[in-house]
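User: My instructor asked us to take a sequence, write out its structure as tokens, and then describe one feature of it. I'm not sure where to start. Here is the sequence I was given:
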Amino acid sequence: MDTPQVTVPPCAPSPVPGSDTSSPGVIHINFRHAAGFTVIGNHLAQHRGLSLTAIGLAAHIQSLPAGTRIGIKRLAERFPESETRIAAALRELEAHGYLHRSRVRLTDGRIVTRTVSYNQPGATAHPITTPRPRTAPGKPAPRPAPTPPPAPAPAPASPTPAPAPHPVPALAAPPAPASQPQPTPAARTTPPPPLPQPQEFTPELQRAATALLADLRRHAPGLTLSESDIAALASGVATWLERDAHPDAIRHALTTDLPNPLKPPARLLRHRITTLLPPPLPGTADLTPPRRKVVVIPLQNCDTCDRAFRAPTPGHCRACRTEQAAPHRAA
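Assistant: Let's start with the prediction itself. The structure tokens for your sequence are:
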């Protein structure tokens, strides 16, 4: 009877306080924060269109105090992710309205990037209301004192009849000036500039331009274009490719600093393709500096001593001209 029962199972671990052993999912143990916390909405924490890197980066940015610099290099020094991954996460947040980056010129001439963080995109700001003071329990709120009714105005005294004035001839009033109609501002009738066209729209250029336009939604979901929009904008992108513009440079020019919200993506891309079109690359002859033209003065033989000297026209050398001028000076 003293032999221990080795087949008895050990005691089960005590349950975690507040846990529900019937549920196999996550168990929350929450404590109320008194200081040093940031409120994050579920629309961000449970966003289905953002990556985990973008969600974590948005939470980090919202926890920073105002005025903190959050450039890509600073974030790469702070976190183990690379600059490429951080830049892609920032583009995701811009596309979904959680960030807005713009280039601003300062008073000293420097151009900096201004970043605006939105903890709830698309929400309108509400005025801050002042809460009403609470009264102690058991005591009724003080009622405002009744306003006494206004006293009746005294009856006006009967006026003393004044002597009748002498009749004064009435003067004719000047006619009122006729109101002139205000000029209506003319509506803008200037058509937008035409889309650039390549010199030779080859099938290879058309295929590359179409693929580049269709791939823009991978980098900016707001730039999702229809097939008709891609066919209309393909000639403009083909002009960029014809002028030896790199596809990465074209993609950067079309997806950087997008407005929020982005309603007509095709119109925005048409404007950027037209206004940001680079000039053709110069040739080798254009990059060579011009040579200085050297003027060679020909050789002449002196008519007197037959000595060679340089002069534009035939004549006498300097020594002969000096000897011929000496008798005239002596005289």
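For the description part of your assignment, you could build on this observation: The mean pLDDT is 78. Try explaining in your own words what that tells you about the chain.
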